[in-house]
Write a structure and sequence with these properties.
mainly alpha, 197 residues
């Protein structure tokens, strides 16, 4: 059930990021074209800034779901499980605490804004524009929690080899050899690329 929810969550985030990217590109192109013809759009700068902020928050949540943020995964994965798991939990606690504070602060700002509207688009409430902060922070938290079990399980559980064999444990220079290359893995010789030696 968690995998199905994660897949649906990923799809929703991908559509949101795609829609925001497309919208931002269209707004920027419109702004450039209208400015070129001497009829600058008054709402261009404000709307583009808001779309960029939305794209940043939703994109960050999508990146968190793929564990694509800057980190040291090879270093952490190379540690013993007794050291790696507590280290991962401490790191996750800091990340979750930061985004909980961000969501709380965003919600407080959301309440303070009241009936304020955008300057260039007075029919758009500021609350709508600023809602991305608490929503984006909560989406990031959900993404982190969804992927936490795989991170805690470690690199052996990444599902890259479904039959359970570990081809990555072979010695350097022997990966990809065997029945495909025609060489006997036990004879100690590896075939030269490009034919006979």
């Amino acid at each position: 059930m968690r995998q199905r929810f994660q897949k649906g969550f990923q799809t929703a985030l991908e559509f949101a990021v795609l829609g925001l990217t497309t919208s931002l590109a269209l707004v920027v192109i419109l702004g450039v074209v209208f400015r070129k013809f001497g009829a600058a759009l008054v709402w261009y700068d404000e709307l583009a800034s808001i779309l960029l902020a939305w794209l940043t928050f939703y994109g960050a949540a999508l990146a968190a779901l793929h564990r694509a943020h800057i980190g040291f995964p090879k270093l952490v994965d190379g540690l013993e499980p007794s050291i790696r798991r507590p280290l991962v939990l401490v790191g996750e606690a800091f990340v979750l605490a930061f985004f909980l504070v961000t969501a709380w602060a965003g919600w407080r700002v959301f309440g303070i804004l009241g009936g304020e509207t955008l300057v260039s688009l007075p029919w758009v409430p500021q609350r709508l524009a600023q809602s991305v902060v608490p929503i984006g922070a909560l989406l990031f938290i959900v993404a982190e929690l969804l992927t936490l079990p795989e991170v805690l399980a470690g690199p052996a559980s990444d599902g890259s080899d479904e039959d359970g064999s570990d081809d990555h444990a072979s010695t350097p220079g022997t990966v990809g050899q065997g029945s495909e290359s025609g060489a006997d893995p036990g004879d100690g010789e590896s075939p030269e690329p490009g034919g006979a030696s």
